[in-house]
Amino acid sequence: MTKEKIVLAYSGGLDTSITIPWLKDNYDSDIIAVCVDVGQKEDWEAVEKKAIASGAAKFYNPHVFDEFAADFIFPAIAGNVKYQGTYLLGTALARPLIAKKLVEIAHAEGATGICHGCTGKGNDQVRFEMGIAAFDSEMKIIAPWRIWDIKSREDAIDYANLKGVPVTSTKEKIYSEDENLMHISHEGGDIEAPENAVNYANILHITAALEDASNKAEVVTIEFEKGYAVAVNGETLLPYEIVAKLNEIGGKHGIGVLDWIEDRTIGMKSRGIYETPGATILMEAHQRLESLTLTKETIKIKQHISMEYAELIYNGQWYSQANEAIQAFITKTQETVTGSVSLKLYKGNIVPHGLTSPYALFDQDVSGFGEDDLFTHHDAQGYINVITLPTKIQKRKGLI
User: Fold this and answer.
1) Is the same domain home to 40 and 96?
2) For L-aspartate, which residues are the binding ones (predicted)?
């Protein structure tokens, strides 16, 4: 009799490593391990060997970092998305693409369920399951952290040792880390408590701590076409190449490190440390270019939309009518966001260094202190009379 199949979202980390033997103990099914390459640096052969050695019947490794950059990171940059005005959503943006690939493989394999290793306290359980539902609303979901008796990462390490599953996490260094092309996040251990100061040099992987950052400033120039970056320092590159290049440049200057208290989807606060050097540079450059090429009214509306867009992505609603509508709006706003932006990088700082666009709305003649044919200093008198009229009426009636 042919066994049923379960597709496991596999990373090779602590949680998903122990999930394979747990699934085999609790379900009479073959486990299909799927590790989606969204740009994390891995020895893929070693990851596959570990999955098979842990009990997986099969291993898939779809490489979609290029799709991740072009269809998820770049639209987010164009939308200026920052959750709670701060977090660039590196993890949240990758989850819907991973969910899409999990469903595709589950369908190809005839699997009856998809399993993920997200904890019951985290955001990713929502993001994965929202993404899976968008492609297969009937797919069975298995979430071990909501079922098993393991209550902590310390318990998980004990279980791994019991089952002979090798893991790199230790009870002394028990951080939970998520890496993709856009960022690396760090949570858990001594990071959890807001009162704890941490040694960034011991935590960061792709970004230099400020003490170790380059002592020499560097200027980077990014060219955009319709809101999307197309070249760095005069070299035309694909989206994923641009992110990787800027990660390298920004990383050595300590750019894009965020130590932050965030409000999770399910209601609790948590502390995380994020490394996002390349996307931080892209976001700064893009917003600066928009300041030159968009009208005041467009910027104001887009700021509001960007806040809602970030919330939507954070909560796992990438595949939604609202997202499609927002992206249509953003695409329209980006028609004139073309030009070149230069930024100086130094010890975690990003400083403006030059900005040009064929669609620039800045006019030297109008904005300068001299006279020109569109505006004279006398024109301001009538404008001020109009905007101060309500204040004058209130004062006359003794209301202020």
Assistant:
1) yes
2) 119, 123-124
Q: Is 17 annotated as a binding residue?
A: yes
> What's the domain count of the chain?
2
Same domain, 50 and 163: yes
Provide the b/e sequence for 47-57 (b: ≥16 CB within 10 Å): bbebbeebbbb
Check residue 163 and give its pLDDT: 82
Q: What is the CATH number for 230?
A: 3.90.1260.10
Catalytic residue ranges: 15, 95, 124, 176
> What does the pLDDT look like over 63-119, one tens digit per residue?
999 999 999 999 999 999 999 999 999 999 999 999 999 999 999 999 999 999 898
224/322 same-domain check: yes
Q: Is 152 annotated as a binding residue?
A: no
> How much is the pLDDT for 368?
67
**9 and 56 fall within a common domain:** yes
13 in a known ligand binding site? yes
- Unique residue bearing structure tokens 């950059």: 69
251 in a known ligand binding site? no
Residue 242 has pLDDT above 80, yes or no: yes
The three-state secondary structure class of 349 is strand
Burial of 202 (0-12, 13-18, 19+ CB in 10 A): exposed
> Are residues 270 and 315 part of one domain?
yes
First-to-last CA distance in the chain? 85
Residue 222 — very low, low, confident or very high, per pLDDT cuts 50/70/90? very high
Instruction: Tell me which residue range forms the domain holding 160.
Output: 4-64+91-171
Which phi and psi (to 5°) does residue 143 adopt?
-125, 90
Do the domain assignments include residue 391?
no
